[in-house]
Amino acid sequence: MADLIRFTAAETAAAVASGDVSAVEVAQAHLDRISAVDEKVNAFLHVDTEGALAAARAVDDRRARGEELGPLAGVPLALKDVFTTKGVPTTCGSRILEGWVPPYDATVTRRLKDAGVVILGKTNMDEFAMGSSTENSAYGPTGNPWDLARIPGGSGGGSAAALAAFEAPLAIGTDTGGSIRQPGAVTGTVGVKPTYGSVSRFGLVAFSSSLDQGGPCARTVLDAALLHEAIAGHDPLDSTSVDAPVPPLVEAARRREIRGMRIGVVKEFGGEGYQDGVVQRFQEAVELLRELGAEVVEVSCPSFTLALPAYYLIAPSEASSNLARFDAMRYGLRVGDDGGRSAEEVTALTREAGFGPEVKRRIMLGTYALSSGYYDAYYGSAQKVRTLISRDFDAAFAGVDVLVSPTTPTTAFPIGERADDPMAMYLADLCTIPSNLAGNAAMSVPCGLAPEDNLPVGLQIIAPAMADDRLYRVGGAVEAAFTEKWGHPLLEEAPAL
What we know:
Elements: H1 9-18, H2 23-41, E1 44-47, H3 49-64, E2 76-80, H4 107-114, E3 118-123, H5 157-164, E4 170-174, H6 181-187, E5 190-193, E6 214-218, H7 221-231, H8 249-255, E7 262-266, H9 276-291, E8 295-299, H10 307-322, H11 343-354, H12 357-370, H13 376-397, E9 402-406, H14 422-426, H15 433-438, E10 441-449, E11 456-463, H16 468-486, H17 489-492
Parallel strand pairs: 2-3, 2-4, 7-8, 7-9
Antiparallel strand pairs: 1-3, 4-6, 5-6, 5-10, 9-11, 10-11
């Protein structure tokens, strides 16, 4: 049973479909693993043992009846606790939603269930997806399975840590400024931010509506492609959903051929503040791309240097609007409702008790940026920068097929090291934010361990909007070549827990 936790998602699905193993056995093996290690990792906020085993039995029943199973039927998955799940708590890592049980499934949740995926439970996250370390969760930080004293990235650190700890072969995250890719980089896993609008946001509790995007997390590029295809596609329930065919992602992941592709190295993503080991592994990955037959050129995107300040005006502004719904009147926490206080007082007391420091910081930033007399100077100017960043991408993609960079400037830092320095924390997303502002697709794929601390480094691959298949083509090629040359440490042996 222990070996089942080391299967890839593709291997697990094949074993279940052939009858070599039952979906119930697979689910139980992962539930046992969670019981054994999650007290140390804190990747899960809620484990749905009964629901997972019921879903697994349903897959086994379908196989017994001779029904054809989907490519991920019977595969366990860890779901970020920002997607609504009918009958299962959804907290967004916040006290203000403690105990809330949604009456409906998010579209992503429903599509996972329809695909026969076994949802093990809900994973820890920075509160309302606001953070880069999963230290802002109201339910305690998550540890990085490579070193439990270090962060697993954020905001989706729970999903990435569950993969690295072999608690699940698949996970779902959300990426508003890098919250899938940055955790992927620092845990040695694969994380993908799909094109904005290509995966439904219906039932995804909103942080920043023009930036939020759900996406797949996995231990291999092929597994990520299988999951991506399962959740992608037009959704009439989401007004921002793109009505266009999903590119052939699994086919691209299996193709693994990049000879003749033009790949651009982003000039602005390097220099001061980048860890030496990260730079070394990135340069080795670029050389590997050349060895695989790609033409590598340097590309300048000058507006990328303005992405961080623009993001921290746009995202908090949208958050201040989205989080206004948490007023203690309709659902979630209610404080001070003893009959002697006004609705305004109850709302104020509830928000004071229910929101954490980072959420309050961003709400105040956003409210200020949207206030009369400051809107044009701050929010309006940030939107103009956003346009410039999109134009830089357009110019770059006119000459190259994809762009590459380090995913994040450093490896995982110690828990608590940046807790009192918001600016240092925000710099973790320096390389990832431009893709969110422009809405195009991006992936982080492992590219080795930094020599100075033996911790994972991620290679970021960026593709044009609706060209997500290019991510999998390049990512699959890099992964295969890297594994052949140096091995894949996360697949060969789990980090010590």
